[in-house]
Amino acid sequence: MSERVVLAYSGGLDTSVAIPYLAEQTGGDVIAVALDVGQGGEDLENIRKRALACGAAEAVVVDAKEEFAADFCVPAIQTNALYMDRYPLLSALSRPLIVKHLVAAAEQYGGTTVSHGCTGKGNDQVRFEAGLSALNPDLKVIAPARDFAWTRDKAIAFAEEKGLPIDVSAKSPYSIDQNLWGRAVETGFLEDIWNGPIEDVYDYTADPAEPREADEVVITFASGVPVALDGRPLTPYQVIAELNRRAGAQGVGRIDMVEDRLVGIKSREVYEAPAAIALIAAHMELENVTVERDLARFKRSVDQRWGELVYDGLWFSPLKDSLDAFVADAQKHVSGDVRMTLHAGRAVVTGRRSAASLYSYDLATYDTGDTFDQSLAKGFVELWSLPSKIAARRDRES
């Protein structure tokens, strides 16, 4: 049997050209694998037909929206995952899911090599190949754009030479990656970090400065999983999709940042993540109500490390597996409702309630009915301050 190359296929110019190019380079068959992770755009069946028309021996298309939401976006909510305290990992979360399906296709079709369209400057090459190494270390990897210096000009010329059924005339001034969890925009005039984004950069969000009525939403969580909006039971995918529309209509989730890439350079990125920003803000507030103080303090360091691991392509790693177990246990009581106002580019929590709440009105109130015994506070403060007092005396006497 000839060699079989499993290609992560998007349907665009670069990966369409990669089909005949890889066949020529390897002398083998190309298996194209395309996933719907909520990126919108073309129908999967059209993408499948294009892959076959470009010479793929087989074309696999997967509707992975529900899987992406439940198995990848939900853990990011539970860990309040914001790389550098801002970026909600939208591209980083989709890569391990794609890798999982590439490995499955390789097993199904006898693939020995996997190919992706990443360049040598980005993070995604690491995410693909680290994931592949963890799930099937015997698979070889070919990355045409990186390994063969495959430029857009070469790709267009090759497509025209082969008569491939793809449109190469229009080119966006930006490099765009999008999925259910958000949208990433880079390159073009954005590479000058003094230039401000203009409105045509955005697609998931409306201009937050435009006057409009506020939108109030109640988000229900069960063990850290969003399960309902305004009392309507929904799957995580449905929750995220609806909040993308509602929070996006209010301009929530615009992020403009200079980011530390894994490969060692800084990159200017513009993101839109309306549902992600709203859900993480709501989840963090519900944790404030339901998670004990020391557990919450420790979890913040776990959340940061979890986000770094995912950003760095280590979704399938022993440390992440162990952190996942910790997070799952820490989410046992993170259930309840959070009310938010979505308006003018902000998602603001205005109410929270939970049967597992650690908040006690009787202890917190300053009014009649206060059950907090203030007489105990004086001794507590003295004992708490004692180490500092002893050290201060020593330092004065030395």
TrEMBL record:
* Boundaries of every Arginosuccinate synthase-like N-terminal domain copy: 4-165
| Entry's localization field | Cytoplasm
Has keyword Transport?
Answer: no
Quote the catalytic activity from the record.
L-citrulline + L-aspartate + ATP = 2-(N(omega)-L-arginino)succinate + AMP + diphosphate + H(+)
In this protein, which residues make up the domain named Arginosuccinate synthase C-terminal? Answer: 174-390
Q: Please list the residues that bind L-citrulline.
A: Y87, N123, R127, S175, E259, Y271
| Main localization of the protein described in the UniProt heading | cytoplasm
Q: In which pathway does it act?
A: Amino-acid biosynthesis; L-arginine biosynthesis; L-arginine from L-ornithine and carbamoyl phosphate: step 2/3
Q: Which InterPro entries match?
A: Arginosuc_syn_C, Arginosuc_syn_N, Arginosuc_synth, Arginosuc_synth_CS, Arginosuc_synth_type_1_subfam, AS_cat/multimer_dom_body, Rossmann-like_a/b/a_fold
Q: What is said about its interaction partners and assembly?
A: Homotetramer.
Q: Which PANTHER family match?
A: ARGININOSUCCINATE SYNTHASE
* Name the record gives this protein: Argininosuccinate synthase
Q: What species was this sequence derived from?
A: Actinomadura meridiana
